[in-house]
Amino acid sequence: MAMDILAVDGDGHVEEWEATWSDDYLEPAFRDRRPKVVETGEFEHDYIWEIDGERIRVGGSPSSKGGVVSTEYEKMAKWRGPHESGEFHSAEARLAVMDAENTLLSVNYPTLLLHWPIAGDPALNAALTRSYNNWVADVSGQSPERLKWVTVIDPRDPAEAVREMERTKRMGSVGIMVFGDYGSKALDDPSFEPVWAAAQDLEMPVNVHPGVGAKEAMKTHRNIAGDQFLMSVVRGFKTVCGSGVLDRYPRVKVSFLETGCAWVDFAVAVMDFTLDNVKDRLELGTIRSEHKPIVERGLPEATPMEYIKDGRIFIGFEVDDDLLPYMVNKYGTDCWVYASDIPHAHRVPDSPRYISNRSDLTAEQKSRIVWKGACGLYGLTAPEGAGIA
Predict the structure, then answer these.
(1) Per-residue pLDDT of the chain (389 residues; tens, 9 = 90+)
(2) DSSP code per residue over 295-342
(3) Total structural domains in the chain?
């Protein structure tokens, strides 16, 4: 039986637009190099970003130029909603879409910045990252009880990343976004340790989101880069669960988002096998060279399943995942992070109602997976009425 469900959205999105890099948010030293929207000529009203002489487009960003909406966005409005909401022009514009979709609160992530770096010059890239954070904080501040956001960091400079975490925490950020890896560097790279330490000190969850952490691959190996977008999340899970990072920083919570739920059983089994194999080889004195880094960092004190059950690891899901009932029954209701994915074009519109209409989940399961995990991850108080209305 269908029922009204009120959701807490743990992974919505905003699409950067010309105002994101305006004088209100971008530092004076970089204003003559701000990103520009240019027309591609591919079809009427088709746009792309030009940043320091390079062109880049990610998802629906950019969706407009000088107030003229792209043809693509207009044709996909069924999924994306009004473009004022997609581009996060105001809290009012986004709240109208949230209200229509029974969403009480939303935690937002970027779109263009799902590719890293967006500028080749490290100083410019860091400045654009700060400008984005200034902008999303400003608009979210129009309705701080319902609009939350996570910090985008530039991991190329860990000291800068930590400064930005400290700055944005004061501005209201509820976490940080990272990718599962950045080119040849994984999340357990020694250079990333200051970020983990700051996440613990600041009580900011680390959220592993799909993204391309080596943008150069897009130019010559588009299939590899496309695979990297999703598979980096799975690799990030393997790194986090196999590196002992959750033991070195016991107060840090980590999420793995927007990759569905079907991969989780596979990844858990792989990590169980790998760690058991390392332990057996240690006892027998036959440790292999490829396993020595795991031993040197310190074997994890818990299995992936135990980290999940302890509320250290949270996982996103898609509302139409076939395996969702099996995964909820196996891992419980409280580790799953509901996501609307507003305003991206591949999402399921009105997804709280989609969950409500599923016949393969119990009423209690439906009620909890739409808010419990998101609130647990970000340390949020559940809004009144969350779950079954």
Answers:
(1) 456 899 999 999 999 999 999 999 999 999 999 999 999 988 888 999 999 999 998 888 999 999 999 998 998 888 888 999 999 999 999 999 999 999 999 999 999 999 989 999 999 999 999 999 999 999 999 999 999 999 999 888 999 999 999 999 999 999 999 999 988 889 999 999 999 999 999 999 999 999 987 665 555 555 555 666 778 999 999 999 999 999 999 999 999 999 999 999 999 999 999 889 888 998 898 988 887 877 887 889 999 999 999 999 999 999 999 999 999 999 999 999 999 999 998 899 999 999 999 999 999 999 999 999 999 999 999 999 999 75
(2) HHH---SS-HHHHHHTTSEEEE--TT-TTHHHHHHHH-STTEE----T
(3) 1
Host domain of residue 111: 5-15+75-388
pTM given for the model: 0.94
Asked if residue 23 belongs to a domain, the reply is no
Q: If you search the block for the tokens 């250079």, which residue do you land on?
A: 191
Q: How far apart are CA 45 and CA 61, in angstroms?
A: 13
Name the one residue in this structure whose structure tokens are 């357990």: 188
In a domain? residue 34: no
CATH assignment at residue 334: 3.20.20.140
- 132 assigned to some structural domain: yes
User: Would residue 10 count as lying in a domain?
Assistant: yes
